[in-house]
Amino acid sequence: MKHRINSKVLEVINDFYCKCLGCNQCTDECVFLKKHIVDAKSFLFNLLNSEEINNKIPYYCFGCNACQKVCPAGINFGELFLILKKDISNYKRSPHIKHFVIHNHQKFGNSNIFSLVKGNSNVAFMPGCSLSSYSPELVEKIYMFLRSKLNEISIILKCCGNPSLSLGEEEKFKSMYNELINSIEQSKIDHIITACQSCYKTLKNNSPNLKVTSLWELLSGIDMPKLNINETFFIWDSCSAEDSIMRSIRNLAGKLGIKIENDEISYHPKCCGLGGCVHTINRELFAENVNINSSKIKTSNVLTYCAGCRDALSNTKNAFHILDLIFYKDLIFKKPNGTIKAWSNRYRLKRFMEDIHEES
Ligand code: SF4
Ligand code: SF4
């Protein structure tokens, strides 16, 4: 279905069009642009002329911003497609039925069944939805580890609302984020340690007065035991990670004695395919992206620090989360969890956290 583009968005498109040099370095970088946009300057020209767009196209963008990093004019198609998604959804709800998966994720993730903010410390650990769905055991282990180092630490099992934001559903995002911040304030938490790069970014961007620390920065700054692993890994950087987080992961891997193939940080990490929730609306593009990403990785073992990236890459590689290596040591490769398992994991984690806070 065609969407009539708002005049304010047309102004942004016009600005991009005037700046664009037509070099197509962006389309060479991005599977989505290459397949659906083909030629950047003509695409922008056609939008300006027709003042309309197929209302599915903006939802095929992973929001990784890799296009901006290669563009000599600094154009960010991720920014344009996000504005278009807001325009299409009218800041409320995506019109695409396939996004029900995300709507449910947002609805249930912050319900009383799965969410929790507990503890007496002003410092809290926030694992993020994907790590909690992937492995409650790992969250439990890292939480107890942090507790042993800090004496006390609170826990936040809530979503920051980033999936809603990535669909342009700004109203939903704001209500989820406000709910999160209210719970944090009520619990007198002013410092959050998070294992999720999206939570990190969302909290930093929206709550400048809150102290936010990446778990990877924290772990790279303390003594960690050497692991006895002989395999070599390719580090898959999360596209939402800041440079400082990418450096911390490499420091941490060095401390743990993990052999890595790519010591240099990636200046424009690609999306694993889950960004922008593209996997829900265009499974084919998601799979193509995973295959392209995997074809560029020489090692069969991949080391990630995002449970979402781990799941996406485990379709083609032996992908491990760095916490798998720290706590399990032996390399037991796991396929991605199905939906029921993921939700039951989150429920189990909530029960565990409730129980240990009742005991203490
Ligand atoms: S890389 Fe930048 S300048 Fe080159 S075509 Fe893409 S948007 Fe235009
Ligand atoms: S933000 Fe990422 S997925 Fe979107 S157009 Fe840019 S490079 Fe492609």
Write a concise synopsis of the structure shown:
It comes from Caloramator mitchellensis. The chain is of the alpha/beta class. It contains 19 helices and 11 strands.
Strand line-up across the major sheet: 3-5-4-6-7
- The CATH class of the largest domain, by name, is Alpha Beta
The helical percent reads 40-55%
Bound molecules: iron/sulfur cluster
CATH architecture of the largest domain: 3-Layer(aba) Sandwich
Number of domains: 3
Structure annotation, total helices:
19
CATH topology tier name of the largest domain: Rossmann fold
- Could you say which structural class the secondary elements and strand pairing correspond to? alpha/beta
- Our measurement of the CA-to-CA distance between the termini, rounded to an integer number of angstroms, reads 56 Å
Overall number of strands: 11
How would you characterize this protein structure?
This is Succinate dehydrogenase/fumarate reductase iron-sulfur subunit. InterPro entries: 4Fe4S_Fe_S_CS, Cys_rich_dom, HdrC_iron-sulfur_subunit. Residues 123-204, 236-310 form the Cysteine-rich domain. Pfam families: CCG, Fer4_17. One of its GO terms (cellular component) is plasma membrane. This protein has 360 residues and is an alpha/beta fold. It is globular and about 65 Å long. The model has no long low-confidence stretch (mean pLDDT 93). The chain starts with a strand and ends with a helix. The protein is built from 19 helices and eleven strands. It has a five-stranded mixed sheet, sandwiched between helices. The protein has a four-stranded parallel sheet with strand order 9-8-10-11, sandwiched between helices. Strand 8 (232-236), helix 14 and strand 9 form a beta-alpha-beta unit. It has three domains: 2-89, no CATH class; 101-215 and 338-359, 3-Layer(aba) Sandwich (Rossmann fold); 232-328, no CATH class. Bound molecules: iron/sulfur cluster (2 copies).
